[in-house]
Structures are given as C-alpha cells and as structure tokens.
Automatic annotation (TrEMBL):
Keywords associated with the record: Glycosyltransferase, Pyridine nucleotide biosynthesis, Transferase
Organismal lineage: Eukaryota, Viridiplantae, Streptophyta, Embryophyta, Tracheophyta
GO cellular component annotations of the record: cytoplasm
Enzyme class, first EC level, given as a word: transferase
Catalytic activity: nicotinate beta-D-ribonucleotide + CO2 + diphosphate = quinolinate + 5-phospho-alpha-D-ribose 1-diphosphate + 2 H(+)
Domain Quinolinate phosphoribosyl transferase N-terminal: from-to ranges: 69-154
Record carries keyword 4Fe-4S: no
Protein name: nicotinate-nucleotide diphosphorylase (carboxylating)
Biological process per Gene Ontology, one example term: quinolinate catabolic process
Involved pathway(s): Cofactor biosynthesis; NAD(+) biosynthesis; nicotinate D-ribonucleotide from quinolinate: step 1/1
One annotated GO molecular function: nicotinate-nucleotide diphosphorylase (carboxylating) activity
Domain Quinolinate phosphoribosyl transferase C-terminal: residue ranges: 156-337
Length: 353
C-alpha cells in the first residue's frame, strides 16, 4: 500500500514467523477505535481454574505448528497494513465478539478492532458488522482462530435464543455436553443467546444421577449420603436429584418431608414421551410437577427439541435442559474479508450473502 505515515520498531508474534525486527509502514486509513473490553455486555461464567487466554494460545499454537504461517511469510509483505471486514453470511445471533478481540490482541496488540454490533445482537445475511485494521500478516494469522470461536459461539447463541423464547415461562439450560476444552466458551455462548447456565462442572453443584442412585442403593440413600457429606465438609451448594418415575418423585418428597435436606431441585428425566406423529405427550411431566407442588425447583430433560420445547415449557417446570445446545451445534456462517466487494459478489452468486 502506498504512503508511509509512521515508522516503529516491532517484534512479530512467534506464531507468525521467527522473531525479527522490522520497520512498519502504515498506509492511510480511516481511524477506528482501539480494542476495549468495557463494551463486553455479557461476561463469561466464573470458573476457578479455566484459563481462557490459555485456550486461545493453544488454538493459535496448534495452527502455527513449528514453522508459523508459511503462506503468509511467502505472500504478504511484513510492512503491509490492511482493513478487513466481518461479514455475516446467514441470519443469526452474533456471539464471540469479545473472544475474537482477545485472539487479535494475543496475535498482535497493535491491531485495532471496531464493531457495529455487540454480543447477543441479531445479524442478517450480508451485514458487515465489524472490522479489524493493522498488519496484514497478523490479521490473516488470527483470522481462522477468531472465526472458529465466533462461528461456534454464534451457532450456540442462535439456537439458544430460539429455544429460550419458545420455552417461556420456563428457563432453558445447557448441560456438560460441551466440546472438550471449550466448556467456558460454549456456556458463555448460551448466556449470550439468552439461556442460563447449568452447573459448570463436577465441583459447583451436587447432581445425583441414575448411576449414583444405583451405586448408593436407592434415591433416599443417595440423598442421605449427600446431606451428610455437605454437613461434614461444611459446604453449601445447590443439590439436584434425577427422577425417572412418579414413584421416585414420591420417594424424594417423602425423604424431604422427614429429613432436613440441602435438596433444591428435582430433575424429571424422560417424562416427555414422543408420539408417532412427531408430537410429545407431557402429561407424565405435568403430573410430576403437580406432585412437587412448588416445594422444589423442577427441571425437565429428555426429548427436548426446538419443536417440543414450547409444549414442555407450558407444563409448569422451572427449567428445561438441552444437551443439543452445545453437542449438536451448527456453526453460523461468518467470514472476514479484505476485498469485501468481491466477497459479496461471490456470496450473492452462491446465495450466501
């Protein structure tokens, strides 16, 4: 690009190439705002050991391997600066804006990013909703990792938004069925989409499931063991127990009526019965909710889809959990283009913009 506006001495990131000092040539451009995390409207869940920056570094390192981006080194002059635009190629809820900024900052802190949308906003196909300006080499190196995070998170947020709206007045939850290593990222996307988080892991909530019950010798034994453990360890946390039949619900209620317990929620698992015509029968679920009668929070799980969630939400349950929000995510199609006119032309030709 013609014209030298400023000269500064820099060291390229290690995943771009081997460290070397170069002279930067900044071409004329429209000034844009610097990266700021003050605009993060929906923060990630709090986790005691999760290293979000470490996940970003790992993603960049696996891409760079032991040589860095050989294509960039072969084709892009180190002193060239460009402006690239984020382009939505389908309708959906955008998520991962804050995380993508972290990626660009990790690759090259001199990059400048500006957005016309924020996490949780709706975008339409063909919309340019953000741009990044700076060293071309750095932008191209960061591009794929930033988009991978953003596309996955946006896909989760888009489905979550649809299910959360349909589930009302119940609240939609995800589960622990997240991509390994991306637990916080996936759950962050659920929050951005308007859902709520279930437990983050094995440490922040007691969830007594069928295998625990079988090993403990029944629901009452499992609940008693949990209550004793929490008292012994002087711990206070939410406790949920899974039930699969009305008999199990009654046993839980009987135990709770006779014993001081830390139980806060009863899961009603697979009480939504699929019908041959594609509909679902929620009568068993409704009866269970009536049995509990507000004594505890309730959570429906099993056979939860975008088509069934509204009917389940009308049953009176407090929460509806769906593993599909994160384990069957369809990424939202987003690209980062320097030649946006050509990208839009191609997109129109392929009906993707």
């Amino acid at each position: 690009m013609p014209g030298i506006l400023s000269v500064s001495s820099i060291v390229l990131p290690h995943w771009c190439t081997t460290s070397r000092r170069v002279v930067r040539m900044a071409a004329a451009h429209t000034p844009i705002a610097g990266v700021s995390f003050e605009a993060v409207t929906i923060k990630p869940p709090s986790h005691p050991t999760y290293d979000l920056k470490g996940i970003i570094k790992l993603a960049l390192a696996e891409d760079a391997g032991n040589r860095g981006d050989v294509t960039c080194m072969a084709t892009i002059p180190f002193d060239m600066e460009v402006e690239a635009h984020f382009l939505a190629k389908e309708d959906g809820i955008i998520a991962g804006i804050a995380l993508s900024e972290m990626v660009f900052q990790e690759v090259d802190p001199s990059l400048k990013v500006e957005w016309s949308r924020k996490d949780g906003d709706y975008v339409r196909k063909g919309l340019q909703f953000g741009k990044v300006y700076g060293r071309a080499h750095s932008i191209v190196v960061a591009e794929r990792i930033a988009l991978n995070f953003m596309q996955r998170m946006s896909g989760i947020a888009t489905l979550t938004k649809a299910m959360a709206d349909a589930a009302q007045p119940a609240y939609i939850l995800e589960t622990r069925k997240t991509a390994p290593g991306l637990r916080l990222v996936d759950k962050w996307a659920v929050l951005i989409g308007g859902g709520r988080n279930h437990r983050l892991g094995l440490f922040d909530m007691v969830l007594i499931k069928d295998n625990h019950i079988s090993i403990a010798g029944g629901i009452s034994n499992a609940l008693r063991s949990v209550d004793q453990y929490l008292e012994r360890e002087n711990l206070q946390m939410e406790v949920e127990v899974e039930t699969r039949t009305h008999e199990e619900v009654k046993e839980v209620l009987q135990y709770a009526s006779q014993t001081k317990t830390s139980l806060t929620r009863i899961m009603l698992d697979n009480m939504v019965v699929p019908l041959p015509n594609g509909d679902v029968d929620v009568s068993m679920l409704k009866e269970a909710v009536e049995l509990i009668n507000g004594k505890f929070e309730t959570e429906a799980s099993g056979n939860v889809t975008l088509e069934t969630v509204h009917k389940i939400g009308q049953s009176g349950v407090t929460y509806i959990s769906s593993g599909a929000l994160t384990h069957s995510v369809k990424a939202l199609d987003i690209s980062l283009k320097i030649d946006t006119e050509l990208a839009l032309e191609v997109g129109r030709r392929t009906k993707r913009a």
